[in-house]
Write a structure and sequence with these properties.
It is an enzyme of class 3 (hydrolase). This protein has about 625 residues and is an alpha+beta fold. Helix content is about 40%, strand content about 10%. A four-stranded antiparallel sheet has the order 1-8-7-6. Strands 9-10-11-12 form a four-stranded antiparallel sheet. Strands 2-3 form a two-stranded antiparallel ribbon. A hairpin with a 5-residue loop joins strand 13 and strand 14 (about 550-555). Helix 4 (about 175-185) packs parallel to helix 6 (about 255-270) and helix 17 (about 510-520) runs antiparallel to helix 18 (about 520-535). The longest helix has 23 residues, at about 350-370. It starts with a helix and ends with a helix.
């Protein structure tokens, strides 16, 4: 009973007593019970795939206002206050006018006339009949749905009937569920996404401990599992058991989980037209907790987030510790989402948070565009760098040694095209091409319009390397020989051209499709989707592919990987109705970029470098 008391419970003995868990619990506690293996206690169908249960969810009760006031006060005591360093009032006016639904629908060409695709208010993509492959994919996605007390709350990572050791692939992962959520939203099925957002929000308040140390408040779990616990011989109950990284390989906290949660929260409001979820007090509190965790001041001199290896989609040691592009792109997107969704209050807390967000957005966009970008011109500039420059006027600010430029890059970079490098630290540039970070930089407008087009130009020019037989490479090129031994620690799963070390991941297809639609390059997305559609159902929807061109199914790849299935379906729906994509990407914010936030000139010091680089940054 002590174990049961330590978990948040929903009794399943009587259906009339099913309720949505209250957030937050009176005394947040964490279960130290190990995860149980198996299929979550869900009913099985003939094929061994769990049946979906789309029962209408219970109406969540509300907490009294007095309790919420006490809780938010308690939350503030745990969170570092985010204060602005800029006294300029111009930042207070930089706010998305009209809120979450202010973006106009995209107008796309169709036949002899333009068709305006109005989205929101319960979007449902029904244009065109589903192919047999799509019907199969939908059946598999529905079969991967996880139910909690009769209500859908997410999808398992993989649902391979032949997998006898699912490890943690039978859990609901935050990042993995995003393409599933978008597929459901685009189809007009909203409840599973709403339930997922609320339940993961409740788990955020749990106590997280590894070796007597607790990470900051606001951390979202990497995943959770529905477990069935026996009360006595006749009665059982379902509980949610989260993993905040204390059970993960390497014990790394999932930095990207909270960022994906914010991005999905915005997408829910956009595609359903329902902003009431975002305006709830518990959702606003959880949103602020994630932001404060990310915006807390530290020792770093850069606006980018400093993280450890394995804290995102690449969740094993792959040499991405520091300031990886993927985290920066998701961070930038989450900040832009939050700026739209934060509800104004009479107090100064939200105003300070908005000011801090604008400050960070401006600094981060300049930092990434100026220092992460490489093309033929930039590489030639680095090749001629002077080193050991000690001054505020230094060109080689990070003291990059030209000898770091790898030989493969000099031959590989095309005449027309470029990309954002994978990482930047003092005396270190990671010149690998990371697909997710570059695609999400396009989607969020972290890159300039010129840079965004150049990234797609590079993918097109290097199609055989980055797409090959299966879209898309997670990174290029792969580590091998001594680099593989030193950087991965001889990881047998990340051997050259496998898994995170240059493997091909079909789930990246939906992000590629979204980026192509935004930049008017829909033919590239159609080509990639057609390639995937021929192989994925034949190969049983693998998690990833191996070899330099993605020719073989990954040696340790799970089959019937849910985000492979969902990524394909989301791509197909976006291609059928490209107007839906306008709800999922961001356009350039010129007003934000035009304002310098460092304020150095007001203190009599030399002006910052933004003025000299403005011509490039705003292109």
């Amino acid at each position: 009973m002590n174990t049961i008391a330590a978990l948040i419970r929903n009794r399943t003995i009587k259906s009339s007593r099913r309720i949505l868990l209250l957030f937050p619990p009176a005394k947040p506690r964490f279960s130290h019970q190990p995860f149980q293996k198996g299929r979550l206690g869900l009913p099985q169908n003939v094929s061994g795939i769990p049946s979906s249960h789309f029962a209408p969810p219970s109406i969540p009760p509300t907490l009294p206002a007095t309790n919420w006031d006490a809780f938010t006060s308690k939350v503030r005591s745990f969170s570092t206050t985010v204060e602005t360093r800029v006294s300029d009032n111009t930042f207070e006016r930089i706010r998305v006018q009209g809120g979450i639904n202010s973006v106009k629908p995209l107008v796309v060409g169709g036949g002899d006339k333009d068709v305006e695709n109005v989205v929101g208010a319960g979007a449902n993509v029904t244009k065109g009949e589903d192919s047999e492959v799509e019907k199969q994919a939908w059946k598999l996605l529905q079969g991967a749905v996880v139910s909690y007390c009769g209500n859908p709350v997410g999808t398992v990572a993989a649902n391979d009937p032949g997998d006898k050791l699912p490890l943690n692939y039978d859990q609901v992962f935050i990042r993995d569920f995003v393409p599933s959520a978008l597929a459901f939203l685009l189809r007009g099925e909203h409840e599973i996404v709403k339930n997922f957002l609320l339940h993961t929000l409740q788990l955020q308040s749990w106590e997280k401990t590894v070796d007597c140390y607790s990470p900051g408040q606001g951390l979202m779990p990497a995943s959770f599992k529905v477990r069935t616990v026996a009360l006595d011989e006749d009665n059982h109950e379902e509980v949610l058991d989260p993993d905040f990284g204390e059970s993960a390989i390497g014990r790394v906290a999932p930095v990207d989980s909270g960022l994906w949660w914010i991005i999905l929260l915005r997408a829910y409001g956009k595609l359903t037209g329902d902003c009431s979820l975002q305006e709830r007090m518990d959702v606003q509190t959880g949103l602020k907790m994630v932001l404060k965790l990310c915006l807390t001041d530290g020792f770093d001199m850069f606006p980018s987030l400093l993280v450890t290896d394995g804290s995102c989609m690449i969740d094993r040691r792959m040499g991405i510790h520091g300031h990886p592009l993927e985290i920066q792109a998701l961070f930038y997107s989450a900040l832009r989402c939050s700026r739209e969704m934060l509800v104004a209050t009479d107090g100064s807390e939200t105003d300070n948070l908005i000011r801090a967000i604008n400050n960070r957005l401006s600094a981060l966009s300049f930092h990434i565009r100026e220092y992460y970008w490489v093309d033929m011109k930039k590489i030639n500039e680095i090749y001629r760098y002077k080193t050991e420059e000690y001054s505020t006027d230094a060109i080689n600010k990070f003291n990059i040694y030209p000898e770091q430029i790898p030989l493969w890059l000099m031959d590989w970079i095309p005449e027309k095209g470029g990309y954002l490098i994978g990482n930047l630290q003092p005396a270190h540039m990671d010149f690998r091409f990371f697909t997710l970070g570059n695609l999400w930089s396009i989607v969020s407008s972290l890159g300039t319009p010129r840079q965004n087009q150049a990234i797609l130009n590079l993918i097109e020019a290097k199609w055989d390397d980055l797409v090959g037989h299966m879209p898309l490479k997670i990174c290029y090129p792969a580590f091998d020989n001594e680099e593989w031994r030193i950087i991965t620690g001889c990881d047998p799963k990340n051997t050259p051209w496998s898994y995170h070390n240059g493997g091909s991941w079909p789930t990246l297809l939906w992000q590629f499709t979204l980026a192509c639609i935004k930049m008017g390059r829909i033919e590239l997305a159609q080509k990639a989707v057609a390639l995937a559609e021929k192989r994925l159902p034949v190969d049983s929807w693998p998690e990833y592919y191996d070899t330099r061109t993605g020719k073989f199914i990954g040696k340790q790849s799970r089959l019937y990987q849910t985000w492979t299935i969902a990524g394909f379906l989301t791509s197909k729906m976006l291609l059928k109705n490209p107007g839906m994509a306008s709800m999922l990407f961001w356009e350039e914010d010129y007003e934000l970029l035009d304002i310098c936030v460092c304020g150095l000139s007001k203190r009599g010091r030399k002006r910052c470098s933004r003025g000299a680089a403005r011509s490039q940054i705003l292109v």
